[in-house]
Amino acid sequence: MSIVGKSTREGKWWYFVDDGIYGLLISELINEPEHKIFTPYVDGPTRICCLAGPTCDGTDVIRDEIELPELEYGDLLVVSKMGSYSWSYSTTFNSIAVPKVVLLD
After folding, report:
1. Average pLDDT, stretch 6-33?
2. From 48, 56, 76, 101, active-site residue
């Protein structure tokens, strides 16, 4: 996932990414979150942030509290343990395309 927007709301960083709970991260909504979401590309102090999807829907919040460093537009986040249900449950809600899947071994 990449950062496509950011803001500060009531002192809390909000990051908006190019995928969300209507896409490959639907399991964040229907199951206990088991994905590790992190960035190996950005160092620095971290703080509790909100991570949200691109649909402009109030439900499209991936994690209300996640610890991340300060990120900029285009920075990449890695999501571990994506499985077959991530793809099969995904939708194109609000005309947001399902992201390309890249497998890492």
Report:
1. 84
2. 56
pLDDT of residue 83 exceeding 70, the answer is: no
Q: What is the pLDDT of residue 90?
A: 66
Give pLDDT, residue 81.
75
Instruction: Please state the length of the chain.
Output: 105
Tell me whether residue 50 is one of the annotated catalytic residues.
no
- Count of beta carbons in the 10 Å neighbourhood of residue 14: 15
Q: Taking 90 as the threshold, does the pLDDT of residue 104 lie above it?
A: no
- HEC string for the chain: CEEEEEEEECCEEEEEECCCCCCCCCHHHHCCCCCCEECCCCCCCEEEEEEECCCCCCCCEEEEEEEEECCCCCCECEECCCCHHHHHHCCCHHHCCCCCCCCCC
CATH number of 3-95: 2.40.37.10
Nearest Cα residue to 52 out of 103, 1, 93: 1
